[in-house]
User: Which sequence fits this backbone?
């Protein structure tokens, strides 16, 4: 195994794992240590890596040939793809030790764990060796001194911590994509998960909630006070907020909608009126909409806006005024590739395409899936009986509603055939 022989584990979080051929296997999420009956530090037996589709697997430390803050490389051999499950005598280092309140011997100085190092012996055995502990100063304006001490000089590492902060764990999680952070939260005990979720800002929490299973969304929202819950719902896309509210009893829906700002609540209320499994129930009511006299340059500037998802930013819908849903008469759409090929000063009315029939709010999900796959589209317009644009169905929302309800859970099964077909169409 290559140098260094001491590695701080929090620095491994998110590091890429490669097989001997250089192919990406996944990313490191934690280290697994086996507790010993003696006072010796726990033995590190492997790493937990997250693969695509959020499956977490165990990587034996004996299979790893290179381990550092830049990459983890596996040696030859068969990779065990069985989903990782922690055993009773094992410890997940980051999940269970980070932020733990401890005392540094011999003086008993109180502090919290910010990182744990693992170190290899001459015989190749890895053990938890040193602990980075930050002192508690009692002052809000100054951070405490950081100590790096041997494992046996720290009191409070064994057993269950009574109280742990969230700052250090949030620091490890802050660079994760919302979907990866949502996945990490599912591994935490409910109380710890709710604590971390409550510490996120409203925008970050809204993004993470959209990636969680419905039951986790509801439990986290219920743990917030209602005013904070309403603020988070305002930051969610209207279709995601409607999906979440659909999981709540109608009286609770009404309370939260009343606490939201009217201009944020109104599109959500409208989406809640549509029948589940139809275009109206899965569409976003806030696609990119411009008038026919807008220029190509203006359209390109709009789709560059950072808050737009790739599927929403892939095309511009062209309508008569008003430009908020329900709009004036729907005229057509322009894909971003067409925009890139046209002179910036040209008007959208001259490049608009309307050769594909729009959806209607009552169009069922199987029909939407078939049409999007047939025409290789990532979004389709939804119009009402008066030819007004009321929203757009995007491929991510179709996938979300085509998969089993529990697909975001760790034990979800393989994709259904309809989702595979849609993915094939979108890739085309």
Assistant:
């Amino acid at each position: 195994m290559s140098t260094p022989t001491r590695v701080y584990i929090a620095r491994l979080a998110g590091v890429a794992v490669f097989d001997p051929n250089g192919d990406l296997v996944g990313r490191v999420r934690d280290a697994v240590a086996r507790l010993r009956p003696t006072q010796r530090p726990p033995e590190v037996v492997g790493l937990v890596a997250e693969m695509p589709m959020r499956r977490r697997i165990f990587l034996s430390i004996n299979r790893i040939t290179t381990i550092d803050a830049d990459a983890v490389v596996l040696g030859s051999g068969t990779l065990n793809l069985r989903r990782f499950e922690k055993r009773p005598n094992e410890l997940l280092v980051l999940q269970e030790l980070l932020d733990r309140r401890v005392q540094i011997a011999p003086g008993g100085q109180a502090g919290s764990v910010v990182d744990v190092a693992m170190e290899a012996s001459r015989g190749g055995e890895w053990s938890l060796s040193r602990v980075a502990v930050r002192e508690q100063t009692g002052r809000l304006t100054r951070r405490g001194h950081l100590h790096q001490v041997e494992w046996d000089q720290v009191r409070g590492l064994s057993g269950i911590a009574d109280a742990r902060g969230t700052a250090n764990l949030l620091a490890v999680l802050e660079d994760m994509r919302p979907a990866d952070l949502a996945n990490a939260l599912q591994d935490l005990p409910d109380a710890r998960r709710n604590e971390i979720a409550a510490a996120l800002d409203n925008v970050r929490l809204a993004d993470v909630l959209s990636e969680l299973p419905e039951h986790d969304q509801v439990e986290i929202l219920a743990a917030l006070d209602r005013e904070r819950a309403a603020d988070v719902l305002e930051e969610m896309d209207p279709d995601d907020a409607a999906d979440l509210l659909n999981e709540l009893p109608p009286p609770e829906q009404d309370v939260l909608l009343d606490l939201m700002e009217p201009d944020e609540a109104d599109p959500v209320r409208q989406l809640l009126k549509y029948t589940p499994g139809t275009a109206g129930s899965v569409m976003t009511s806030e696609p990119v909409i411009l008038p026919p006299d807008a220029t190509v340059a203006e359209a390109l500037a709009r789709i560059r806006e950072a808050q737009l998802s790739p599927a929403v930013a892939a095309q511009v819908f062209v309508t008569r005024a008003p430009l908020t849903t329900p709009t004036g008469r729907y005229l057509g759409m322009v894909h971003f590739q067409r925009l890139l090929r046209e002179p910036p000063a040209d008007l959208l009315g001259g490049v608009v395409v309307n050769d594909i029939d729009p959806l209607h709010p009552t169009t069922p999900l199987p029909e939407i899936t078939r049409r999007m796959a047939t025409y290789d589209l990532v979004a389709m317009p939804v119009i009402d009986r008066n030819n007004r644009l009321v929203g757009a169905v995007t491929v991510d929302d179709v996938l979300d509603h085509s998969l089993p309800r529990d697909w975001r859970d760790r034990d979800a099964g393989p994709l259904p055939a309809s989702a595979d077909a849609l993915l094939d169409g979108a890739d085309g």
In short: Residues 237 and 284 are 7 Å apart (CA to CA). Confidence is low (pLDDT under 50) at residues 160-164, 413-428.
